[in-house]
Amino acid sequence: MPASSSARRALRGALATLLLAAPSVRAHAQGTTTAPRRRPQPTAIRTAAPAQAQDGQWTPAHARAWYDSVGWVAGSNFLPSTASNELEMWQAATWDPATIDKELGYAESLGMNTMRVFLHDLAYSQDPQGFLARVDQFLAIADKHHIRPMLVLFDACWDPFPHAGPQRQPYPFLHNSTWVQSPGLAILSDTSKHDVLRPYVTGVIGRFGKDRRVLMWDVMNEPDNINRPAYFVFEPRNKGDYSLALLKKAFAWARAAGVTQPLTTGPWKGDYADTTTMLPISRWQLEHSDVITFHSYDPLPRTVQLITALRRYNRPIILSEYMARPVGSTFQTHLPALAGEHVGAINWGFVQGRSQTIMPWDSWTREYTAEPPVWFHDIFRTDGTPYRTEEVAVIRQVTSANVKGAGKRPAATRGN
Q1: How far, in Å, CA of 215 to CA of 247, rounded?
Q2: Is 281 a residue whose pLDDT tops 60?
């Protein structure tokens, strides 16, 4: 779509004005914007055996036995269509169990058995008991639809200045225009403040860390993401160092709280297939996770190359983000192959909605005034009709052959 530089400058200017309103934000502003993220290509794959952590991490045998009992997992990163970010999903004023129930019914109709769902520390801190009650209600709804979610505790992506209460309205035709980080920059970039997050972790894990309805915990999403180009100007260049410090504490807090489900945190950038060039934070993530998760929006050959390299950890593998149609990551290409590799498959996006992830990443640098020619993410339109009927046919075919019990569900719950 042709770019409109004046409209894009106006949009970015409005966002900058909003974010720079606070003095603490101005103090962190630095740098310039660049193109959206792209993973550098490796020159070779090295497969040296990784070290084993001594911090309560599951043994590889324990992890494999767990995955054998669960079976292959498939699902989506889930946000109800009526929410623009995690806080709109979980705060009492915008909590929408009716939409969650309806849309998890769509997931059940596809034979999916998991969803990756983001929590938020501010949703807990402003209303601990109410938040835990809403998570419990969500788990009851998911269980009704035969779905065991992967719950995400922290997230380093998008807006680094989250706030409780009403959220700003999405900018039209802008990918994830209001998604917020957890924790915000003020806490993440000050390691002396990390301990304020301990009650959140121990409160959530203490309540749900032994709950059979929870599949596993993703402790932090893309911890070293400096969010080019959207919020790059505000991010510390050593963000990975701050996030690694928090990750180490959060894993320890979760273990100490008695969690019985597996913990994970997945790498997403750099050549983590090569142990000699792997980023330190990616190395720590892979060496301390009970189950290996990773992100790849690459075409299938590169994704399979990463899977092959990650098998050196001798643990179950779940691809917890994939599927961006215009860049060559699709259900038709990837889902059958992932099932064949017994690698879990969790795509980004489910129902078209306020997160606007049908729009591409480059909507932050180009002007769009309508739906893109090809949706970037998401499977269903807001009214529940599939974006592409051939895609849902592939999903149902693969899940019916590979998800435990999928073929035994009542016909009424398998959709049309």
Answers
A1: 20
A2: yes
- Alpha-carbon dihedral angle through residues 181, 182, 185, 191, given to the nearest 10 degrees: -150
Tell me, rounded to whole angstroms, the distance of Cα 359 from its chain centroid: 17
Question: Average pLDDT, whole number, for the chain?
Answer: 88
Q: Confirm if 215 and 394 have CB atoms less than 8 A apart.
A: no
126-153 pLDDT, tens per residue?
A: 999 999 999 999 999 999 999 999 999 9
Euclidean distance between CA atoms 318 and 292, whole angstroms: 6
Phi and psi for 160 in degrees, rounded to 5? -85, 10
How many whole angstroms from its chain centre is CA 368?
25
Contact between 133 and 101 (Cβ < 8 Å): no
CA 311 to chain centre: 22
Confidence band for 379, pLDDT divided at 50, 70 and 90: very high
Which class does domain 60-413 fall in? alpha beta
Q: Which of 286, 196, 189 is nearest to 245 (CA)?
A: 189
Each domain of the chain, given as residue ranges in start order, spans 60-413
Asked whether 201 and 254 are in contact (CB, 8 A), the reply is yes
- Per-position DSSP letters for 177-192, written without gaps between them: TT-B-BS-HHHHT-GG
* Residue 54 in this model has a pLDDT that exceeds 90: no
Give yes or no for a contact between 25 and 161, defined as CB atoms under 8 angstroms apart: yes
Residue 68, classed as helix, strand or coil, is: helix
Closest by Cα among 219, 330, 321 to 269: 321
Distance CA 195, CA 212 (A): 28
Q: What are the angstrom distances between the C-alpha of 157 and each of 40, 85, 223, 230, 281?
A: 19, 11, 8, 10, 16
The single-letter code of the amino acid at 92 is: A
